[in-house]
Amino acid sequence: MKKKPHLSFWQIWNMNFGFFGIQFSFGLQQSNMSAIYKYLGATESEIPMLWLAGPVTGLIIQPIIGAISDGTWSPKLGRRKPFFLLGAILASIALIFMPFSQSIWMAAGLLWILDAGNNIAMEPYRAFVSDKLEEKQHSLGFLMQSFFTGLGSTLSNFTPAILISLGIFAMSDTMENGIPVATYWAFFIGAFASIASILYSIFTTSEYPPTDEELLRMKENKKKGNFISRTFNDIYQSIKTMPKTMKQLIPVKFFTWYGMFCYWQYITSALSLSLFDTLDETTEGFRQAQVLTGQVNGTYNIVCFLVAFALVPLAVKIGAKGVHFFSLLLGGIGLYFIPSLNVTDILFSIPNIFGEGRINIYTLYLFTIGLGIAWASMLAMPYQMLVGAIPKEKTGVYMGIFNMFIVIPMIIQIFTMQFFVYDLLGNNPINVVKLGGVFLILGGVFSLFIKNKKPSELLQSDILKNNN
Length: 468
Hints:
CATH superfamily: MFS general substrate transporter like domains
CATH topology: Growth Hormone, Chain: A
Order of helices and strands: HHHHHHHHHHHHHHHEEHHHHH
Number of helices: 20
Oligomer: single chain
């Protein structure tokens, strides 16, 4: 196999820049979809099922796209980039129309399209790191994606608050369907960010052409026909021969993503109840809670992109699983103690660059430090632990299968929360968020049982192989 060149920091920046737009889109739905559903008439107990679009589309699309992209080559666009472009176009269309939803089911249908587009674009991006980078740069590649995840989500979460702070819109400005006007413009900006950032990566980054052996295999597969059957058989065989490290990561992914879905679904309602003592979506308190949701989500994503690169040397020193344990522990503690925090006790103030006066930072924002560190680790460390254990020629399909370990816990969370967990927790969204914190901690504990080599050990092993 031809040795991959060592890429510069800015080359890795350019290839991953499209992740910014994908995560801007994800950030918008994480902070706004529960509130949009409530504005359209949904009750608290209906919210979990209305989030079903994301995990189901991920479950279906990601392994299929992974398998297809492994066997794709376009002389003009490459192997992974055609899927980046298709996904960005679908996501942008859904983002533009989402705020105009006239019913719960129209919003849910658009969410299916939005998640399909994001999943089509995102899955090949994981494989893109393995395609382009030598093994010792994998940590930097995945953590660069964590950085852009934090940056994209931060800007998407703060956009409504910025528009209000600038005086462009008031908190009370709403459309006919009850959705705030600032939310519509945030989605419109997200549509532009999604397509523009993907196009930047496409035009600034080339893909390595397949070897003669790979091209021959692709041609033979095309001659065989029965493309759909072959794709599903590839996925099935890959699951049967799943590496041990991948199996050990299953409980880690289950608890972390179950926990994060608890947080995303109910953080607005939890803040509305704990801070303003209401769950009524027509009140000023609920609208303030929605804006606060964007601000705290934006803050934990600021922490995410600030610490993302700091995790690289830590992963080399103590191993990816050690970093992941401590990160999830901090995140879980943060979520559990959200009800103890408030927006009355001021930690400090900062200048308001979008208007007059100063912005107060309250104790509520303390939990975002731990969650931001956990989020940076969740987006990078499991992939770092996995990438050295999977066959290079099946990177796409295995990354797709690995992402099933994200969406299956989400689906389980939706059905269990819908039918009995929410009742067991006293029909209280605050308790749901606290459960999410406990599950993040459990995910961290299970990460300690993973048997994997540190990045420095993997590099030393490669050197020995090359010398032999």
